[in-house]
From TrEMBL:
Keyword Cell cycle: no
Alphabetized UniProt keyword annotations: Hydrolase
Cofactor(s), by name: Mg(2+)
Boundaries of every Nudix hydrolase domain copy: 7-131
Superkingdom field: Bacteria
Any Pfam family matching the protein: NUDIX
Protein known as: Nudix hydrolase domain-containing protein
Matching Gene3D superfamilies: Nucleoside Triphosphate Pyrophosphohydrolase (3.90.79.10)
GO molecular function (one): hydrolase activity
Organism field: Streptomyces pilosus
Presence of keyword Hydrolase: yes
InterPro entries named among the record's database cross-references: NUDIX_hydrolase-like_dom_sf, NUDIX_hydrolase_CS, NUDIX_hydrolase_dom
Length: 131
């Protein structure tokens, strides 16, 4: 069975909001110029619950703690990649950016996103996607 079926990596994203309804956006070092702003994200580890991936990635990239909520996106058909996104709520922590991956971070209102935001982020932030 293993040889006959496709193998996938799973990209997991967190739509992290604070108590004011602002969303956390990160400027990623390794993303293409002009499209570096996006949501906290990373790849799930083997056997890892995707909700745990959100918690881990947000903590690794920003030092912040989050509580994961509902699934807001599930996309497949991207060659060998599947994309998953969850809502998340800020619990606390101190903002400390991972300098290897993240250049900048900011809390943004959904109607005031910076230039260079990844195209998928707007609909996720506005709640226009479905799982």
């Amino acid at each position: 069975m293993w040889l006959l079926h496709a193998k996938f990596v799973v990209g997991v994203t967190g739509v992290v909001r604070d108590e004011e309804g602002r969303v956390l956006l990160l400027r990623h070092r390794m993303w293409p110029p002009g499209r570096q702003w996006g949501l906290p994200s990373g790849f799930a580890r083997k056997g890892e619950d995707f909700r745990d991936t959100v918690v881990r990635e947000v903590r690794e990239e920003t030092g912040l703690d989050v509580e994961v909520g509902r699934l807001v996106m599930l996309n497949s058909g991207l060659r060998t990649r599947t994309e998953v996104a969850f809502e998340a709520r800020l619990l606390g922590g101190e903002l400390r950016l991972d300098p290897f991956e993240i250049l900048d971070a900011r809390w943004c209102r959904p109607d005031d996103l910076p230039e260079g935001v990844q195209p998928v982020c707007g609909p996720l932030i506005r709640g226009e996607t479905t799982p």
